[in-house]
Amino acid sequence: MTLGSRFDQVLSAATDGADWAWAELYRDLAPHLLSFLRSQGCPDPEDCLGETFVHLVRGLAGFSGDEAAFRAWSFTVARSRLVDAWRSASRRPSVPMADPTNTHVPLRVAGPADEDLLQRSSVDEVLGTLTVDQRMVLVLRVVQQFSLHETAGIMGKSEGSVKLLQHRALASLRRTLADRAPGTRDALPAEPDAISRAGQPEPRWR
């Protein structure tokens, strides 16, 4: 459930350092941020989540916007911490990188064939066929339900680039699903807005 009309009050209290306000923001954001970090193969998602909130605390005084903008900002910070974690892990070869195909991001393909598709192919394997940017676009657009504009801001890319990544990711997804479940190639919608989540709480940010 979103903070809604209470958001300004909670944000103001958090800016003043109120523990209760940060506890509310953490309860709202942490599960989504952690899911995002895990889906991107973060080497240590819990540590990265902690670093994300450290940066949110430090930067809150400079934030201006509504609840949706705050959520988008938090994911922008999380992505930056994720990139730092990747770089750090790459300098330490002995530390294995988390396998993004071993995470479980519960996407559901909308339509009459979705149940059969889920039985024939697991989403974690499908995500493993995508590039890093393609996977991030789908997770942000489909799982986290960000708009095209918000996704572009989080990833630091143009909306045109995000559209192209989205198109290629869905095309790759169709090919993979077709290979594993012949005859279901057209079951995947053209736009991620038509793909909903399964096994997750109802969207709290729209």
Walk me through what this model shows.
The protein is mostly helical and 206 residues long. It folds into two domains: 4-90, Orthogonal Bundle (Rna Polymerase Sigma Factor, Chain: A); 100-197, Orthogonal Bundle (Arc Repressor Mutant, subunit A). 60% of the residues lie in helices and 2% in strands. It has helices spanning 7-15, 19-39, 45-59, 67-90, 114-120, 123-127, 132-143, 148-155, 159-180, and strands at 107-108, 196-197. Strands 1-2 form a two-stranded antiparallel ribbon. It is globular and about 55 Å long. The termini are close together. The model is unreliable at 101-121 and 194-206 (pLDDT under 50).
Which labels suit this protein?
Rna Polymerase Sigma Factor, Chain: A, 206 residues, Arc Repressor Mutant, subunit A, 9 helices, 2 domains, globular, mainly alpha, two-stranded antiparallel sheet
